[in-house]
Amino acid sequence: MGERYDIAIAGGGIVGCSILCALAKLAANPGAPIKRNCPVSDFRETSGGWELGTPNGGIEASQLVLAASFWTRELALKIGMDLPLFAVEHQALITNAIPELISREGDVPTIRESSAPCNIRQDGKSPLIGIYEREPKFRGADALRPMACP
Known about the structure:
Blueprint lengths: L15 H13 L13 E5 L2 E6 L2 E5 L10 H7 L11 E5 L4 H4 L8 E3 L4 E6 L2 E7 L18
Antiparallel strand pairs: 1-2, 2-3, 4-7, 5-6, 6-7
């Protein structure tokens, strides 16, 4: 799972972990079991859904959500999906939680400065300052190519 850009929400960012927790809650409400601390080491499509390989044995699932942050693209390629997702090397400074964010409900807007290029945003109850290189290094850069628009 990557993050979705939505300017109407906290200045643009949606925290992927929050989406994952919401999806887990939606799945659990009608009775789907949630298995924690059970890393998936492999997966394959079957006629009825998906078979997941774990250290505790195989698990069958009707739906699959790729929630692997920087590794989502590589996992999607395994099932024939070529997603235009690439991690970019950058520096981030995150402080401890601060009282002003602890007492606040919701997230503060993200501040972006494209000429720097950097951003300041909320990470949990802590401020995060992200600084990007002028000539970024892409993870999986060998796969970068022009993307066709549908």
